[in-house]
Amino acid sequence: MRPAKNPDRRRVVVLGGGMAGLTAAYTLLKRARNVEVTVCEAAPRSGGKVRSENLSDQIVETGPDSFITTKPDMLELVRELGLESELIGTGPDVGVSVLLGGRLTPLPAGMNLISPTRLMPFAFTPLFTLKAKLRMILEPLIPIRRDGVDESLADFARRRLGREALDRLVGPMLAGIYAGDPERMSVSSTFPQLLEMEKRGGLIKALWRGGGAKPARQAGITTFMTIRNGLDRVVSELVRRLPTGRVRLDCPAQAIRRRGGEWEVVTPGGVIAADSVISAVPACALADIIEGIDPELAMRLREIKFVSTATSTLIYDSKDVPEAPRGFGFLAPRAEGLTITAATYSSSKFPARSAAGRMSVRAFIGGAGRELDAEGPITRLEERVRADLDRVLRLNGAKPLAMKTTRWVKSNPQYEVGHSRRLDRLASCLKGHYGLVLAGASYCGVGLPDCVRSGRLAAEIVLAGSRRVHGTVRPGLA
């Protein structure tokens, strides 16, 4: 028999103990005294994709390795949790290269997003042919598209910058962030700032006028930041701020249902009653949980596709590396025929977290259209990654001191063309489910700052009740 409900307390169940779910729970308890929160996490650990591990006496990240500070939400949370002293920024050896014809070619200085802002470095770069350079420089003369049709990232790039820019820059760089296919990605849902720049006369003109993304200018803050002992520190601190026993691990939600005007969350350990439910699990997982009470909502959730990726971290003895690579890493266009899609030189990107005498590299595998690479046998995958790095970085067969590979099977949401309409349809379904709020990377942003913002907004929607939350375009979607 369930205990009687306390009318003075609002009970909230959060599904998913990743960054969005933990932030939602933390925000609820911080902003309201009369809230009782329970977090149900299916895995044996909290944090979702945020995983920090010790590999060869060095902290490595098997999920995201940092967060961008031009979106302030994650940085603000770190400070709020008292972890500011543990922040570390990127090293001085900035720059990214593109693999072209088997050789690493640095991006020209002054490239912002996908547009040049400095003429001379762009004019002399071997990354683009003369024809492609002329096409890109003429970008401000391209008419602005005004029909409001949702356009793919590939169509946008071809229209404004040309085919070569798409193949050598836009696809590897921007589509890589989402592990997506640029031919299917919605530019309005993934990089809306590009459309805003187009409205201001074009990408190049908007950047010259200062309309591009601006780096954080606070003292000691670089564009990308991380935590000295691993991003897991943020997760553990969020959990520490919650009441003991309120984060239930190995506790998957098997179903949610309505009974007597309240929600019930069915778990292997029993039924949890709630006034509100925040779902911060992937859309495809929620579809299975919600199907019993709303098949249409489940169908809409399944319209959001997910793809598989993997990351491999390799640590080398520096004396075994003939020539230390320059910059933060490289992009590998698909035409180069590699298994890896990109790589980060972690020891250069965050030298304050690198052990002396070591070079660490993080390789990325898989994504839309390349999922078999990420889903195959680990041994075979690691052999191919090592071969790719040996070829690109000219390692002469150097063997890594340690290697760690993590697969993320069907874990990366795809914001394909029409994503905004899908969210509208989801919001329409949610109107019939008062107290159910959807948050997390499936909907409005995949980065850590996006997840933090989503979690905070979900908490605000729950606390506001029937009152409209300022800035909420779609009720029920955070």
Terminal CA distance = 34 Å
CATH architecture of the largest domain: 3-Layer(bba) Sandwich
Shape: globular
> β content, as a range?
15-25%
Number of helices: 17
The biggest sheet amounts to: 7 strands, mixed
CATH homologous superfamily heading of the largest domain? FAD/NAD(P)-binding domain
The average pLDDT score comes to 92
Radius of gyration, taken over Cα atoms and rounded to an integer in Å = 23 Å
Helix content: 25-40%
CATH overall fold name of the largest domain: FAD/NAD(P)-binding domain
CATH class term of the largest domain: Alpha Beta
DSSP strand count? 22
Strand order of the largest sheet: 8-7-18-19-20-17-21
Number of domains: 3
**SS-based class:** alpha+beta
| Low-pLDDT segments, ≥5 res | 211-216
Question: What are the key terms here?
Answer:
478 residues; alpha+beta; FAD/NAD(P)-binding domain; Polyamine Oxidase, Chain A, domain 2; protoporphyrinogen ix oxidase, domain 3; 7-stranded mixed beta sheet; 5-stranded parallel beta sheet; 22 strands; 32% helix; globular
